[in-house]
Amino acid sequence: MMKKCSFFIDWRVFNNDKSSNGRQINRVKVTMILAAGLFLSGCESEETGEQGDGGDSREEITGETIAENLDVPWNIAQTNGTFYITERDGMIAEIDSAGDIQREPVKTEEAILSRGEGGLLGMVMKEDFADNGEAIVYHTYEAEDGSIMNRIVTVQKEEGEWSETGVLLDEIPGAAIHNGGRLEIGPDGYLYAATGDADEPDWSQNRDNHAGAILRMTLDGEIPGDNPFPDSYIYSYGHRNPQGMTWLDDVMYSTEHGPVAQDEINVIEPGRNYGWPVISGDETEEGMETPLVHSGQDTWAPSGMTIFEGRILFAGLRGEALYELDPEEEGISLVYDGAGRIRDVWSDGEYLYAITSNTDGRGDPVEGDDRLIRLTVNQ
Questions:
Q1: Residue-level pLDDT at 265
Q2: Residues 6+ apart with CB under 8 A from 187
Q3: At a CB cut-off of 8 Å and minimum separation 6, what does 253 contact?
Q4: pLDDT at res. 377
Q5: Could you tell me if 299 and 341 are in contact, meaning their C-beta atoms sit under 8 angstroms apart?
Q6: How far apart, in Å, are the Cα atoms of 160 and each of 66, 121, 236?
Q7: Residue 378 has what pLDDT?
Q8: Which of 194, 223, 258, 271 is deepest in the core (most CB within 10 A)?
């Protein structure tokens, strides 16, 4: 089922360097706002942001609902024109080019625990998926002692279901909140996994566990010989709840939820300590990294990231928008909103795709939520 809606988007630039008391609250040099003129003209023909007398600061964005009634979707994966969307309760929604959905259960040795922010989260397809149907997923589970953990496993699609075929890493600290969960295969061919602090902030500074970190491993779960710490999966640490990762020109970027506000975009370098819970925002401490940009006293609740036409884009949950990061200007711009909470964004090079997260208990769902949306950017 496909549906088109009409939106008119106008954005402006303003300086957001100071709070009301004059104190500098972030290093975002440019922030774009949606001007008074987001007009919902009904779900009839198409969804557009029309150009006017705004020069290069305005784009036409056409959005189209590809599939709807998804159940708390979390991650977009796609291969050979078919989408595979993880749903937090332990299903993978397979969506064909017509928008038809086939839900298939994921059967793991440790039952998927969908509690709070946990459940079936990140997913990447193996390069030879077309031959063997294998993918890698990140999911939450309950350990024998009753504690909440996360694990990274390989699964194989066969006869209408996905079954676990191997464990890459388990006993990653978890909780009802701050599980991280994003998986990406980097340009070096290794698997990267973002983990949260499991609601135990001090664990992010402890390299003896895997909480509050970005992990790096082979696709078979081995520790690469050039990881920054000997015999350790940890690539970077001192993170609170990283939710997205991407690379542009071999530079790695990550989104991270801040405490109430001060959400972060970080440039990730091996072995670096990103400060949580010792520092956040503009605070500094020797041996700790400050973010490339952060949201100051506002919040984006940034999530999945992608590259589109050489641009870094990331999803916003609390911000209910899709944003662009300009790493040179250290600027953030709003490029799309009107669909509610956005959990993940993905690009095939021609189009952008986003999934909403309005049914996760923190949104304001409308009929048809949640959705897979295709965005076309006409400049």
A1: 99
A2: 247, 250
A3: 245, 246, 247, 265, 266, 267, 268, 292, 305, 312, 325, 327
A4: 81
A5: no
A6: 22, 20, 38
A7: 74
A8: 194
Task: Give pLDDT tens digits for 171-210.
Answer: 999 999 999 999 999 999 999 999 999 999 999 999 999 9
* Tokens linked to 352: 């952008």
Quote the CA–CA distance of 293 and 24 in Å, as a whole number.
13
Q: What is the pLDDT of residue 60?
A: 72
CA distance 176 to 182: 16
Give residues with Cβ within 8 angstroms of 262, minimum separation 6: 26, 280, 281, 294, 295, 296, 297
pLDDT for res 233: 99
pLDDT value of position 225: 98
How far CA 35 is from CA of 297, 371, 372, in Å, comes to: 20, 25, 25
So what's the pLDDT on residue 61? 77
In the block, residue with structure tokens 């977009």: 76
Nearest one of 165, 134, 170 to 152, comparing CA atoms:
170
Question: Which one of 2.120.10.30, 2.30.42.10, 2.40.50.1070, 2.40.160.10 gives the CATH number of domain 68-367?
Answer: 2.120.10.30
Task: Give the residues of the chain that fall short of pLDDT 50.
Answer: 1-58
Output 202-207 pairs: Cβ under 8 A, ≥24 positions apart: 202/277, 203/173, 204/237, 204/238, 204/239, 204/240, 204/276, 204/277, 205/237, 205/238, 205/273, 205/276, 205/277, 205/278, 207/232, 207/234, 207/237
Q: What is the pTM of this model?
A: 0.87
- The contacts of residue 62 (CB under 8 Å, 6+ apart) are 4, 46, 47, 48, 375, 376, 378
Determine the pLDDT at residue 379.
65
| Structure token digits, residue 377 | 């950017």
- CA 57-58-61 angle, 5° bins: 140
